[in-house]
Amino acid sequence: MTIRTEPMTVNIGPQHPSTHGVFRLRVTFDGEEILEVEPIFGYLHRGTEKLAEERNYTQIVTLTDRLDYVSSMINNQAYCLAVEELLGVEVPQRAKYLRTLTAELQRVASHLMGIGFFLQDLGTLGTPLMYAFRSRERILDLFEMLCGARITVSYMRPGGVFFDAPVDFWPALDQFLKDFEAEYNEIQQLILENEIVMVRTRGVALLPLDLAINASVSGPSLRASGLAWDWRKMAPYDAYDRMEFDVPIATGGDNYDRFWVRIQEIHQSIRIVKQCIEQIEPGPTRADVPLVLRPPAGAEAYGRVEASKGELGFYLVSDGGISPYRMKIRSPSLMNLTVTEHLLVGWKLADMIVTLGSLDINLGEVDR
Amino acid sequence: MVVRSLGGGELEERVSAGVSDSVEGSVDDALWINSSKVAEVAGFMKSDQRLDFNFLNSVSAVDYIDHFEIVYHLTSLNKQHTAIVKTRLNGRDALSLPSVYHVWRGADFQEREIWDLMGIRFEGHPNLKRIMLWEGFEGHPLRKDYL
């Protein structure tokens, strides 16, 4: 006797712990196998681009915090670089180093969350996530010393940073770096060669390099497919031209490789932080810019950085007023989602959750 | 600096030789093309050996009240150079231009977003529907005359 079967369509989300925010996947299954996928988002759309047209250039810094809210420092940096290009302002050396340093600390924090939630999605029930959070909390404490905020930092300003680091920041940073080495080794020992992680993620959801490039995938997901493309190397901004670091790549493009690349990038970020501490010199931390900025009419700029998720770009158009005429945000998480359908079709339900975790999207940035 | 940005003049020379009647002019950092030729120019810029623009960074639309501008930021990951290509759409109603979806898959969500928020249609896009807002929403909120 044959049992009649038919495909079933299920909504994963918008309220679902594995979607990392309010995100919905409409999936059609044949048993456990995925036949069709459609990502649906916009639940967190706050109209950041429209809001920016009503605020002055300095106020917009606070809006950028709320894009990818686990890497606000890097968002600040991308926006400030775009405004500086618009104005033609030169940033003081000390501010460049402070920005590079905080951006790299933020990248560590963001990747720790990416790794933690990836393992959570694998079904590790919180243990590795808490190990990752332990170190991330320390970084947030450091940010609190710098600017009083932990998540929505608004630390950078067009022309530099808001405040110089307080004197007790430097010993606290040294202590963190010392402790982090041991803490991070512990995390790596738990997960890097873990057999269950390997079996579940090796060879799953392959992303070929030509598709990754064609679909505008950037960041760790692109590098896991085998191309060493990193804007910090390719078009160095702030103090990156004086930093020595490697760009880790993997060639498989599977879930494990995307996860592995993030783990390796944390090592490089720590290397950069250490170089910043060695090279930083006393000096002003903000260029002499007026409080209300008025870039020349018709000026345009595209400021881009290598954010923790990929290439983050701000395209600004000025009409000579105190607010941008148009601000377009090139969000890496949104672009990386282009390949969801390709990654998921043909795999099982359990792999779907893990694959979404390996892309490390942030819905604040997808929906803007 | 490893990545070089190609000037408008350099692009104009190459593109006008490859696709006839497509270039409208160029400025320092950008190439202006005819909006009806967008897909052809995109295909040429991607396949041309010297330009080799295999990566689409972003597609943006800017509302200038009497016309709209569509801006393409491109990068060649092999040749390590970038370019800005712009096109102009006059008027405010029933605007459309060819989609570059079939040249760069990365245009998928961004073209949908421009349709959703700016109300510009991309002909040839396989799934052009609202992305941030829901089906049935009236108007296109990023336009200057909305609110």
CATH homologous superfamily placement of the domain at 4-93 in chain B: NADH:ubiquinone oxidoreductase Nqo5 subunit
Head-to-tail CA distance between termini of chain B: 43 Å
The H/E string of chain B reads EHEEHEEEEHE
Largest sheet of chain B: 6 strands, mixed
User: Over all CA atoms, what is the radius of gyration of chain B?
Assistant: 15 Å
Biggest chain contact: A-B, 35 and 32 residues
Helix content of chain A: 40-55%
Which range does the strand content of chain B fall in? 25-35%
The average pLDDT of chain A is: 89
The fold-level CATH name of chain A is: Cytochrome-c3 Hydrogenase, chain B
* H/E element sequence of chain A: EEEHHHHHEEHHHHHHEEEHHHH
> Which spans of chain A of ≥5 residues are poorly predicted at pLDDT below 50?
none
Distance between the termini of chain A: 53 Å
Q: How many domains would you count in the coordinates of chain A?
A: 1
Task: Give the overall shape of chain B.
Answer: globular
Q: What is the highest CATH level, the class of the domain at 4-93 in chain B? A: Alpha Beta
The fourth-level CATH homologous superfamily of chain A is: Cytochrome-c3 Hydrogenase, chain B
The number of helical segments of chain B is 3
Corresponding CATH architecture of the domain at 4-93 in chain B: 2-Layer Sandwich
Alpha-carbon Rg of chain A, integer:
21 Å
Overall average pLDDT of chain B: 87
